[in-house]
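It is worth pausing here to work through a concrete case rather than discussing structure prediction in the abstract. The textbook approach is simple: state the sequence, then state the predicted structure, then interpret. We follow exactly that order.
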Amino acid sequence: MTNVLVVYDRAAGRLLHEQEFEHRRDAFSARLKAEREFGGGTNVEVVVLAAKSRDDLLRTHARYFLTLDDLAARIA
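Step two, the predicted structure:
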């Protein structure tokens, strides 16, 4: 199982920070710190995603990891 902390700027459509953790509790501790650091504003998402593998996360939560151009190319 992989646990990934993601800080994503919705307005800019880009990933600001990503960090992988083996243990879920460590990921959630880092999430609280990131929420303080990045302000938790309406344009910034701070989330912890969990999946069996990074490839699974890329499939299920691609918008966090791919550029807008990459996402558009997947649709076309």
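Step three, interpretation. The longest helix spans residues 24-38. The chain is about 45% helix and 30% strand.
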